[in-house]
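We modelled the chain as a single entity of 340 amino acids. Its sequence is:
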Amino acid sequence: MSKRKSFKHRVWRTAGTIILLLALFVPFYVYHTNTAVAPETRTVTVDIPQGTGFFGATDILDRAGLIKNRPLYYVLVIGKQAHRQIRAGEYEFTTAMTPRQIVKKLVKGEIKHHRVTIPEDLTLREIAERLAEHKLADPEQFIALAHDRKFLASLDIDAASAEGYLFPDTYLLDRTMSQREIMRLMVREFRKRVTPDMIVRAEALGMTMGEWVTLASLIGKESGCRSEKPLISAVFHNRLKKGMKLQSDPTAVYDLAHFNGTITRRHLRRRVPHNTYWIAGLPPGPIANPGLDSLKAALEPAPVDYLYFVSNNNGSHYFSSTLLAHRQAIVKYQTDRKKN
């Protein structure tokens, strides 16, 4: 056989081998990439950190049991030119998904979102701890950021902290978001809810933005009952006009990191900056993050002459205009109050 024929023979033989291998490989590849990664169905959550490369992401998925054949996974990803498009984040997969579906989800960046509800009147620390429950923030770092003067200036907050400006709402968050982004989102929501007319009204009442939010935070902490808030607002406005101390119980325990929920006389005697039993006027800043009802109530106090209120132990309050009536209400409703 001539050299030329021998060469052609080798070429055809090699081509035939390649075609045969492809004929065997392609059906296997198609079957593999379109078959669930495991026979039993379970949900798997994986976290691909920012900056993780293709091979690092593959290791994470493999350890989670989401890759059943690594070489074929490489072929799938590289064939789809997806190796440079996998996005970082927290993902939720099921083992009923196929490799093709998994790669598609990674490329589209369909990360897991956390629906986090921030109730009205939580403090900065309580919000930080709630975010930490979802692994969205480190409490101490979040609190430190809320006191960062440079960051506060970027949020247009002229105060010592972001307390009062983290608007209570339900947020859709994910773990790719930085703590700055989360805080910025909450402050942005505050700006959306606070209308120009509300700001004008606060100014007409002689209050700065900080004073208004601070008063609203006291109202919110004193009562969660919407209908009562204008009455509580009236008490505080009337006391401020008369130069009386506000004597708001929640202010006495604001600085306590661990508080069991029962305010005693010992708490009311504490000489701390926010305690309105000790200081005159409003506290130096908000004691919580008020909702819209409290913000509105601070601007629209009820037209009453009340100067006192006391809990009647059913979730609402008894209001009085005189000290005598107030003392009688205390005897009636608060006889079991701790005296220590």
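As a brief sanity check on the tokenised model: Residues 46 and 91 are 5 Å apart (CA to CA). The two ends are 112 Å apart (CA to CA).
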